[in-house]
Amino acid sequence: MTTSHGSEPKALTACVPWQQLRLLASQIGDKGAREMFGSEMERAERLSRVPFEDLVVDFSKQPVDDEILKVLLALAEERGISAAIAQMFAGEPINVTEGRAALHVALRMPKHASAMVEGEDVIPAVHAMRARVSAFVEGVRSGAIVAADGGAFTDVVNIGIGGSDLGPRMVTEALAPYVTGGPRVHFVSNVDGWDLTSTLAGLDPRRTMVVVVSKTFITQETMTNAHAAHAWLVDGNGRDAEGLERHLVAVTACEKRAVHFGAVPSQTFGMWDWVGGRYSLWSSVGISIALAVGMDYFDSLLEGGREMDEHFRHTPLDKNVPVLAAMIGIWNSNFLGAHTHAVLPYDERLRLMPAYLQQADMESNGKSTRLDGSRIEDTQTGPVVWGAVGTNGQHAFFQLLHQGTRTVPADFLVAANADHGLDKHHEILVAHALAQSQALMVGRDAAAARAVVEEEGDDVSIASHRIFGGNRPSTTMLYKRLTPQTLGRLIAFYEHKIFVQGRVWGVNSFDQWGVELGKTLAKELLPAVQGGAVPADADASTRHLLGHLRRMRSKA
Fold it and tell me: Which of 111, 248, 465, 520 is the most buried (most CB within 10 A)?
């Protein structure tokens, strides 16, 4: 089936593959991946994909067999996934509610490529902006661009929120071993003043650069922090200090507002409306990443994303890793009743990946309106995404994963090699990752639980508490080591998985209207919080809370 310009195929639950999957789900009973293993190595090899020599994606612990996969891929075809991929790379306005392309892949394309948006090839502009970023980054890191007093910048504070924070923050931390020779990079996002004050407390304003990242340059949380940080720079350097403007960088789609704020054009870098915030770390939004690690490693990050793009764009659906992950996720969520998804990086440097993917996934596919404007009432869309780094999670929430009443599919992200030199630590870490995914699948039956209890000399009456149901689905992504290139592949993999799922559900993965109502109401309530009149249309609960708030503040 072919779709055009984001138009939606026929009703999801009425299509034949969907009905077939419902039937297969009703027949599966208690059968899961554990029972589906025949010749174990044969299944593991058959349900693993190796899109690159140093990346293995193992789907064999997922509750799918050849028949289920065949129908899942038929559903992908019925929902026009192949055509949708082509439309995205062609720059068609698949973000239908805003009438825009969703062409973040263009940010990773080489100079000789072409990517058209409304009849214009955007690749020259992308590379021109990257060249500006590169020259600036090299200037700061080499000491050619200096602070007002002529000294080198030692610290950079990135001020943004959402996609202007989560992506750059996650990547900068993940690439910690590659952070050499440049300034230290810090991130501030929360409008809670503690975030800004605690970050600035240990910094010298004479050696600090502030990077303000906001597409509109009117985002309340970001601009509140930006004004306070700018005042801190002025106080610390002197209002009339020559060169004070070098302490301020702006990344925005609205240069006029940035210049009015105080940024100079030479330190103002643009972004495009055909790139959503949560997909923007590849652009000038990633300038803080580049300041931390240098442009060579930033380019390697882009190269990794580009490699996954090419795999996604050109690989048949049955071998396409993002497509398979997306369709298996739909099987778990829509047919087997799993409504959350855990991301479990057994890699301390990826500890922020679950938070990053919460925005990428839940802001993209947390929708209840179809592309054609109709309401979704007969199925579920995006899952709740959560997780934490292993092995910490094992001592926090794995109890629920193993023995809880809810089934939570999980992704295990594991590096084969570490970069810290503590080989024993890494061997223990990897053993835990493999053991947890194994335990989730194989479980422990009543007889085995009783044997364990008897061996340990405990009362056999507690044996039932030692049973593990098993058949808890997981995917393991094993990569050689966490390089910038590998990280780029992983991020792009999740971007494409999210896109495929959104198209199957028939939602627009590239808008985020759900954040608007709360923002509007916050602006209306701010005067009341500050002591002014309460809005006439405020609900009783809000009025009640405002009353308590005023009493508490008056007694502070």
Answer: 248
CATH class assigned to 105-299: alpha beta
The separation between the first and the last C-alpha atoms of the chain, rounded to the nearest angstrom, is: 64
pLDDT number for residue 95:
97
The CB density around residue 314, as the number of other CB atoms within 10 Å, is: 10
Backbone angles phi, psi at 256, to 5 degrees: -60, -45
Domain limits, the chain: 14-78+315-509, 105-299, 520-554
Residues designated catalytic: 363, 395, 519
Q: Which H, E and C letters describe 205-219, residue by residue? A: HHHEEEEEECCCCCC
Q: Say if residues 266 and 287 touch (Cβ distance below 8 Å).
A: no
Residue 315 forms beta bridges with which residues? none
Indicate if the pLDDT at residue 520 is higher than 90.
Answer: yes
pTM of the model: 0.96
The three-state DSSP-derived secondary structure of 385-414 is EEECCCCHHHHCCHHHHHHCCCCCCEEEEE
Q: Which two tokens stand for residue 307?
A: 């490699």
pLDDT at 11: 78
Sheet with 268-270, strands from edge to edge, namely 184-188, 155-159, 208-213, 248-252, 268-270
Query: Is-contact 72 21, C-beta < 8 A?
Result: yes
pLDDT tens digits for range 254-282: 999 999 999 999 999 999 999 999 999 99
Q: How many helices (H) and strands (E) does the chain have?
A: 21, 13
CB 248 within 8 A of CB 262: yes
| Side-chain-facing half-sphere of 539: CA atoms under 13 Å | 3
Structure tokens at 154: 């030692």
CATH 3.50.30.40 matches 14-78+315-509? no
In residues, how long is the chain? 556
Query: How far is CA 272 from each of CA 102, 104, 107, 123, 280, rounded to the nearest angstrom?
Result: 10, 9, 10, 12, 9
3-state secondary structure of 345: strand
Place 555 in a pLDDT band, splitting at 50, 70 and 90.
Answer: confident
Under 8 Å between Cβ of 499 and 312: no
Residues 278 and 206: their CA atoms lie apart, in Å, by 32
Is omega for the bond preceding 391 within 30 degrees of 0, making it cis? Answer: yes
Q: What is the pLDDT of residues 348-393, one digit of tens each?
A: 999 999 999 999 999 999 999 999 999 999 899 999 999 999 999 9
Nearest-5° angle of CA 412, CA 416, CA 417? Answer: 130
Mean pLDDT of 486-508: 98
Question: Kindly report the CA angle at 164 between 161 and 170, in degrees rounded to 5?
Answer: 95
As a whole number of angstroms, the distance between CA 352 and CA 348 comes to: 9
> 520-554 belongs to which CATH class?
mainly alpha
- pLDDT confidence bin for 183, thresholds 50/70/90: very high
96-125 b/e (C-beta count within 10 Å ≥ 16 → b): bebebbbbbbbbbbeeeeebbbeeeebbee
Asked if 14-78+315-509 and 105-299 have one fold, the answer is yes
- Residue 301's pLDDT is 98
